[in-house]
Amino acid sequence: MSVAFRRENDDEHLEPKFEIPIPPGPNLVTTRGKALIDAKVAELEARLKEDLDETALTAAKRDLRYWQTRQITAEVQPEPDGSVVAFGTRVTFLLNGKERVLGLVGDDEADPAAGLVSFSAPLARALMGAEEGEVLPFNGREDAIEVVGIEVL
């Protein structure tokens, strides 16, 4: 067999490991979101003290770099008063006639399955600044959203 068709080592076929991408824009967080970030950093720092294999150690270090960056850049937002849809509020609204409830939080705190969406999501941006009873345009329809209720998270 020709030398041109041989691999030098088994690592050559592995996918490269990239840094976790940082979401663009400001790192706005709720008080709860900041606590979650701090807990994640503490968890990863503790994990680095464990006896990890090289792959797990590399992954833990990469994750720690991401979460430390998010911790340093976190901007805890003041609690809203609940008079308008804002960062840190839970809004009940009708979207095309169907009732939905969403909390507007930071990128790292977002969990759509739990009803928490990032403030930078298109639906969240459409809701920002609205008052209870207001009808808003969304997705090409002028009356797609009707705000039913607003409360502080």
UniProtKB/TrEMBL annotation:
Organism (species)? Novosphingobium indicum
Q: Do the record's keywords include Protein biosynthesis?
A: yes
GO: which molecular function terms?
translation elongation factor activity
Q: What is this protein called?
A: Transcription elongation factor GreB
Q: Which Pfam families would you find in this protein's record? A: GreA_GreB
- The residues covered by the Transcription elongation factor GreA/GreB C-terminal domain are 83-148
Among InterPro entries, the record links this protein to: GreA/GreB_C_sf (IPR036953), Tscrpt_elong_fac_GreA/B_C (IPR001437)
Keywords, A to Z, come to: Elongation factor, Protein biosynthesis
- Tell me the lineage of the source organism: Bacteria, Pseudomonadati, Pseudomonadota, Alphaproteobacteria, Sphingomonadales
Regions that span the bilayer: none
